[in-house]
Amino acid sequence: MNEHDAGDAQLHRIAADPRYRALVRSRGRLAWGLSLVMVAIFFGYMLLVAFAGPLLATPIGRMTTTIGIPIGLFVIVSAIGLTAGYVIVANRRFDVQIAALLRDHGA
What we know:
The structure is a single chain. By secondary structure, the protein is mainly alpha-helical. It contains 4 helices and no strands.
């Protein structure tokens, strides 16, 4: 058995571990959930642009800034926030679980 075959066997053992499968499912659910939230925010904004343009063009108070600017900023900030949320969860939970799996399987 060469080094490549040993690595393949180890990968198969890790992939068969129920903890790894649970980790993959959990990570996928989080990624898809956050993606759906971002898609809803983005398409909501696009629908506002398409069907409520005059609303977005309404000035805020007596300023020259319109309502569309803070709503557009919300879309951008929400993307950054959702990405940061994923990174925090990945670093605190997923990386710890992956490290435990690798340690337990001698990787």
